[in-house]
C-alpha cells in the first residue's frame, strides 16, 4: 500500500530549462505583466473617476479589470522571478495560496463576463425596463453573489488538492504555476476519477459560461434588426468586444479543464495565454473598441 509523502516544497520547472530562453521568458513576460498592470489600472482609475462612465456596463468592466489584474498577478510575477532564479522552489503554503487565488479570480472573470452579457441583454432587448431592472443596488448584489460563487469554486479546488490528491514521489512540477493539472502525476487515484472531478467543477463552469454567453449574444444580435443603423453600429461594437473576450478566455479554459491532461503537451502554452495573455489583451480590446472609454481617458489626460 502506498504511503503519503508530506512534501513541504516543490520545484517549478517553468516554461523552459534553456538559459537563453529563460532570459527571453523573463523579458517577454515582464513586458506583458507591466502592460497588464498599466492597462487594467488605467481602466480602473478612469471608470472610478469619470462621471460619464457610471452605467452598469462600466461598473462590471471595473470588476473585470480588477479580476484581470489579480488573476495575472497570481502567476506572472512568479514566472518572471523564476526565469532568472537558480532554485525555483515554492512552499506548500504558497502552492495552496496560488490555487485559491488562481481559481478565485479566474472564476470571478467568468461570472463578470456573464453579468456583462446580462446587462447588454436587458439594455438592448428590454430598453424601457433597463433603468428599473439594472439599478446600482441590483448590480452590487450581483457582484456580491459573483464573489461568493468564486470563493466557493476556489474552496472546492483546494479541497480537491488537499483531500483527493495525496502527494507522492518526485516534487518536480512541470509547469510555471501550481494548479490541479500539474498535480495529477502525484496522485494514486485513477485518471477517470480525476478527470471526472475536474470536468464536473472547472470544466463545467467554463463550458456552461461559454454556452450561456454565446446564446445570449445570439439573442442580442438577432434583436438588432429593430434598431436604427446608428444604434446597431454602437451595439455591435460593444458586443463584438465582449464576444472576442469570451471566445479567447473560454476557449483555453475549456481546453485545460475538459481535455485529458496527458494527451496534449501544449497545455502549458495554453495556460500561459489563459492566465497572462488574456489579461494583457482585455484592456486593449475594451479601450480600442470603446469610444466612451477613450474619450474619458482623453479628458483625464
TrEMBL record:
Gene3D superfamilies (alphabetical): Rhodopsin 7-helix transmembrane proteins
Keyword Transmembrane among record annotations: yes
UniProt KW keywords: Cell membrane, G-protein coupled receptor, Membrane, Olfaction, Receptor, Sensory transduction, Transducer, Transmembrane, Transmembrane helix
CDD domains: 7tmA_OR4A-like (cd15939)
Cellular compartments per GO CC: plasma membrane
Gene Ontology MF term list: G protein-coupled receptor activity; olfactory receptor activity
Protein origin, superkingdom: Eukaryota
Limits of the G-protein coupled receptors family 1 profile domain: 39-286
Residues passing through the membrane, by range: 24-45, 57-80, 100-118, 138-162, 192-215, 236-257, 269-288
Protein's cellular compartments: Cell membrane; Membrane
Membrane topology category: Multi-pass membrane protein
UniProt similarity note: Belongs to the G-protein coupled receptor 1 family.
Name by which UniProt lists this protein: Olfactory receptor
Amino acid at each position: 500500500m502506498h504511503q503519503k509523502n508530506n512534501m513541504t516544497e516543490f520545484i517549478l520547472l517553468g516554461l523552459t530549462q534553456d538559459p537563453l530562453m529563460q532570459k527571453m521568458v523573463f523579458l517577454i513576460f515582464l513586458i506583458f505583466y507591466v502592460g497588464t498592470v498599466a492597462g487594467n489600472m488605467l481602466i480602473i482609475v478612469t471608470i472610478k473617476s469619470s462621471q460619464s462612465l457610471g452605467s452598469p456596463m462600466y461598473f462590471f468592466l471595473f470588476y473585470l479589470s480588477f479580476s484581470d489584474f489579480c488573476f495575472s498577478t497570481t502567476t506572472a510575477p512568479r514566472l518572471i522571478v523564476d526565469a532568472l532564479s537558480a532554485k525555483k522552489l515554492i512552499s506548500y503554503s504558497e502552492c495552496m495560496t496560488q490555487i485559491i487565488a488562481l481559481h478565485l479570480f479566474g472564476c470571478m472573470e467568468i461570472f463578470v463576463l456573464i453579468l456583462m452579457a446580462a446587462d447588454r441583454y436587458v439594455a438592448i432587448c428590454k430598453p424601457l425596463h433597463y433603468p428599473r431592472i439594472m439599478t446600482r443596488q441590483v448590480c452590487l448584489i450581483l457582484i456580491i453573489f459573483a464573489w461568493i460563487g468564486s470563493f466557493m469554486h476556489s474552496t472546492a479546488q483546494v479541497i480537491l488538492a488537499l483531500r483527493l490528491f495525496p502527494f507522492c514521489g518526485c516534487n518536480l512540477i512541470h509547469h510555471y504555476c501550481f494548479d490541479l493539472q500539474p498535480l495529477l502525476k502525484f496522485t494514486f487515484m485513477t485518471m477517470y476519477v480525476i478527470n471526472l472531478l475536474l470536468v464536473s467543477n472547472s470544466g463545467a463552469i467554463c463550458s456552461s459560461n461559454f454556452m450561456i454567453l454565446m446564446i445570449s449574444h445570439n439573442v442580442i444580435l438577432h434583436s438588432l434588426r429593430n434598431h436604427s443603423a446608428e444604434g446597431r453600429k454602437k451595439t455591435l461594437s460593444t458586443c463584438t468586444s465582449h464576444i472576442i473576450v469570451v471566445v479567447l478566455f473560454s476557449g483555453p479554459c475549456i481546453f485545460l479543464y475538459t481535455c485529458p491532461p496527458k494527451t496534449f503537451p501544449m497545455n502549458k502554452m495554453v495556460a500561459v495565454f489563459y492566465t497572462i495573455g488574456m489579461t494583457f489583451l482585455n484592456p486593449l480590446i475594451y479601450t480600442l473598441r470603446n469610444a466612451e472609454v477613450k474619450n474619458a481617458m482623453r479628458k483625464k489626460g
